[in-house]
Amino acid sequence: MIRSKLIRNRKIVDARAFPQAMNLRTVTNSTITSIHVQYQCLECKFIENKFKNFSLLSQQFRSKDNEKIEIDYEGEPLLLISLDQQGEVLRTRRTRRLWHFGEANLTISPQEDIAVNDFMPNTFLEFFNIALPEHSVRDLCEIYPNIIMPFMDAFSLDSPVYFNRNNIPISRGILRTVNDIKCCNNMGNYAEKYLESKILDCLSMLINRTNGSKTDLSPVNLTLSNKIHDAQEIIRSQYRDPPSLNKLASMVGTNECTLKSAFKHEFGTTVFQYLFDYRMKLAVKYLLESQLTIAETGILLGYNYQSHFCTAFQRKYGMSPSEFRNSQKHI
Can you spell out the DSSP letters for 140-177? Predict the structure, then answer.
């Protein structure tokens, strides 16, 4: 739960007085909540997209005068990936930190947290935050104990913990990953899986920077392995109308070249060969266990023409589907 207070001349306007003191608009659409607040020279906008294991929060502030706004948070502790995407602000959370455009940091926000933003005149500020609750970080810790354990220890503290003494300059790799997260759409049931993958990429790159690396190292190998197994699941569930290689890579949050090489390394075969072999295994099952015609079996497997199915089956097993079915009757 987020509450905001505007501090003017040492007087606080509480969020509970927003309807009287400010122009407040709240819109909720499915998983997205948008809050827009305007008060004299200050305008604030909060957009939260909430998923099962994480939330995406965009914060925008526009100030025409010297202003301070206090943001109170009450809820479960969070691991925050925070990026300053525009503007400059002095933010106080027990300790004062000046944020510049193009900087990022990892923070553990405790169960109760207060951030005071001190704005200069004519300021436009935009923050983008990825929020991971404790249960999600705990799940990650089981997969990557050496990397995530320091974050788990910080959840027991009652004050914010920054994992970098100084904010980290956003690299091109981090920026591309964040843009992929913000622009994710039209992916249907795979959107959340894709976002989880991209968030892990972003977290990996920031951890690398926190550990002193000056360049974007590849995300941890287990993260890539998870993506390749996600690709396998998609192939097995969409074998009738499989996505293109490029789309499959996008669905699991990687690129086509990485997908091809990592898939071959993981399963010892290419993506297309895996799809072909999986279809042929199902073909044997349908030919032996159903009364479907050869043409119906081919259509069920994604072959629009019986001749294409028969050619594929002949290439795999050295005989036609009808010859295979007849041979099994005599066994």
Answer: HHHHSHHHHHHHHHHTT-SS-EESSSSPEEPPHHHHHH
Render 41-102 in DSSP notation, one character per residue.
TEEEEEEEEE-SS-EEEEEEEEESS-EEEEEEEESS-EEEEEEEEE--EEEEESEEEEE-TT
- Where helices occur in 165-219 by DSSP H, the ranges are 172-182, 191-210
**pTM of this structure:** 0.64
Number of domains within the chain: 3
DSSP class of residue 209 equals H
Distance, CA of 63 to CA of 124 (rounded, Å): 7
101-111 residue pLDDT tens: 999 998 888 88
Cβ atoms 143, 224 nearer than 8 A: no
The DSSP annotation for 238-249 comes to: STTSPPPHHHHH
Q: What is the extent of the structural domain holding 126?
A: 1-170
One domain, residues 149 and 294: no
